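This part of the workshop introduces the protein records we will be handling. A record pairs a protein's sequence with a compact description of its fold. As an example, a complete record with its sequence and its structure tokens follows.

_____
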Amino acid sequence: MSKIEFSVQVRLVSDLTASKAYYEKVLGCEVNDFWAVRDEFALGFKLLQANKPEDVKPNTIGKDQPVAWDTYAYVDTHSDLDQLYEELKARGARFLQEPILTEADWGAWKEFTIADPDNYSIGFGSGKKE
């Protein structure tokens, strides 16, 4: 079977210039004509200008979700997640969900969620305390 190297999400955006600036300045992505990529495609997007504003449709909240996610990315440890939170906060990210820790019999999960200019949400989480 052939190996897939990475994937990207395609996002219709209301203002391509504003979205490119956000993904570069806030998320720390490398941005070109329409690609926004961070950490060698660990986080990757293809940003496309929507024909009309109503074409931009972020996900709605699913059953038992604390917030709606359009993207969910994983980091290695809770410490790494805390560092990423501080980085994004310093860069001006808008948070939909501040870091929360959920303890269960299977372990501890920590996550937070930010929103881009079109209200697409990007969740970040880690399941490893250290």
Notes: The radius of gyration is 15 Å. The longest strand covers residues 94-104. The chain has two helices and eight strands.
